[in-house]
Design the sequence.
């Protein structure tokens, strides 16, 4: 597989694993507190209220609240950038040792490879379509709703 096919899919998978590991069994108000904390730690979000809301939504949607995903919140590119920033931050804050991080990244790569193979099996061939397919599957969105999302 080409790296340009895989990289965004690995980011999505790594974000997913870290978000579930960090937030799945905690009071959901912890997500809101985390968003406030990450804003001060990363320039990607900073003072941008819309991006801060997007961080909270992508985390909560990963925990099963997909109804919060709204097309006007951000583009697919912004979502992947946010997932990348959050994944990096969660890794830094996790306290995992190098071996644990390596295992988690390997797991994310395997999951990403599976998503890319599935997307190719469904006719996606361009890297953007492969990432779109992985994100759409993760959010449980139909192809039509996802297309509407990306037109905004």
Sequence:
């Amino acid at each position: 597989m080409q790296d340009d096919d895989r990289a965004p899919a690995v980011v999505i998978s790594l974000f997913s694993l870290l978000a579930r590991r960090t937030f799945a069994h905690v009071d959901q108000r912890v997500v809101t507190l985390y968003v406030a904390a990450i804003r001060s730690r990363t320039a990607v979000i900073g003072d941008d209220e819309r991006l801060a809301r997007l961080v909270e939504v992508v985390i909560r949607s990963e925990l099963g609240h997909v109804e919060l995903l709204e097309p006007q919140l951000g583009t697919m590119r912004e979502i992947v950038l946010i997932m990348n920033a959050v994944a990096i931050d969660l890794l830094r804050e996790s306290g995992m040792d190098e071996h644990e991080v390596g295992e988690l990244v390997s797991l994310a790569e395997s999951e990403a490879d599976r998503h890319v193979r599935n997307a190719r099996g469904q006719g996606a061939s361009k890297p953007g379509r492969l990432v779109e397919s992985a994100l759409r599957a993760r959010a449980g969105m139909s192809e039509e709703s996802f297309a509407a999302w990306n037109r905004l």
In short: Helices lie at 3-23, 29-41, 49-62, 76-94, 98-121, 127-139, 143-151. The mean pLDDT is 76. Residues 98-121 form the longest helix (24 residues). The two ends are 31 Å apart (CA to CA).
